[in-house]
Amino acid sequence: MNRKFLLSVFISFILIQYCNGQLTTVPLCPAFNVDVLEGTVNDKLGCNSTAGEVKKFFPCFTDAVEETNGADCGGVFFKDRGIGFFTERDYIEVKDNFKGKLTPSLLGVARTSLFQLLGNAKIKDPNWDAFATKYGLLILYYDKANKVNKLQLSIKNAENIKLCE
Prior knowledge:
With 165 residues, the chain is α+β, with helices and mostly antiparallel strands. The chain has one domain. Helix content is 18%, strand content 28%. It contains 3 helices and 12 strands; from the N terminus they run αβββαβββββαββββ. The protein has an 8-stranded antiparallel beta sheet, with helices on one face. It has a 4-stranded mixed beta sheet with strand order 3-2-1-8. The longest helix has 18 residues.
């Protein structure tokens, strides 16, 4: 009986060592609510927010690229959520895999139905349109079916905007 008890204690000790997992925390983020007409995210961050502000408000970023005084495309990115803050170039990009709320909901909207909401485009291209807004410029990109698949919100105007590839 004594041997069985010692053997069970020994086996239990070994199992506890193997089952003792490492707990890690995952930063929680609030939902992304992008107001296209105001140029804001969650009414707190705008196109000219700093990388530090974005990281503080949304600590679940997937990538951060340091700024280099305009020579590069520094920013804070949420690739798994379809949104990026290009803090070095002062614009926000929302892609078709965006996980959040977009107001108004423009992703997937037909190009021909945008006039009522946004008016005439300031610049037109076969693949995109740029609209003047109160905060700067809204650029909408279209897929082969002529539906919106990417947005860029910038505080720059059409004459001085510089986007990243």
